Amino acid sequence: MIDIGLSKMALIGAVALIVIGPEKLPRVARTVGTLLGKAQRYVNDVKSEVNRSMELDELRKMKDTVESAARDVHQSVQTHASEFQSSWDSGQDSANSIAPPSTHVEPVPPQYRHPGKNWRVKRGATPQWYKARAGVRGKVLSGAARVARYRPK
């Protein structure tokens, strides 16, 4: 890298002051500063793009390894399932030859019935002691009944 010390910077500034002149020197310094800033931003953008591409390559490699592991697991499960099915079928054949066929009929499970919009069922899930402690009203009172009930004596 370029080794620029304080003495070299002072020498460059003195030469620029003599060559460019004191009137144009501030404008030239601003232009050089903006160009250096743009160059630094460009270099930073290139660095970040390279880092992103490297991370993307790493993610692709990781994805490939995960997919290959998943394929291996799927194949091993398929082979074990086929082995189990063949042993199960051979066991069933021997069991069928020993025992006579049964006339057992399986019961039909009850059909599911959606509770609908019954808010009482939903409110019933809250325990009564919690409702009492939280002050949830169980019954609706009219205005006159409320005044009669809570009237100071």
Automatic annotation (TrEMBL):
Pfam families: TatA_B_E. Residues 78-119 are annotated as: Disordered. NCBIfam families: tatB. HAMAP family: TatB. Keywords: Cell inner membrane, Cell membrane, Membrane, Protein transport, Translocation, Transmembrane, Transmembrane helix, Transport. It is found in: Cell membrane; Membrane. It comes from the Bacteria. Part of the twin-arginine translocation (Tat) system that transports large folded proteins containing a characteristic twin-arginine motif in their signal peptide across membranes. Together with TatC, TatB is part of a receptor directly interacting with Tat signal peptides. TatB may form an oligomeric binding site that transiently accommodates folded Tat precursor proteins before their translocation. This is Sec-independent protein translocase protein TatB. GO terms for molecular function: protein transmembrane transporter activity. The Tat system comprises two distinct complexes: a TatABC complex, containing multiple copies of TatA, TatB and TatC subunits, and a separate TatA complex, containing only TatA subunits. Substrates initially bind to the TatABC complex, which probably triggers association of the separate TatA complex to form the active translocon. It is a single-pass membrane protein. Gene3D superfamilies: 1.20.5.3310. GO terms for biological process: protein transport by the Tat complex. Its main location: membrane. Belongs to the TatB family. GO terms for cellular component: TAT protein transport complex. Residues 78-100 have a biased composition (Polar residues). PANTHER family: SEC-INDEPENDENT PROTEIN TRANSLOCASE PROTEIN TATA, CHLOROPLASTIC (PTHR33162).
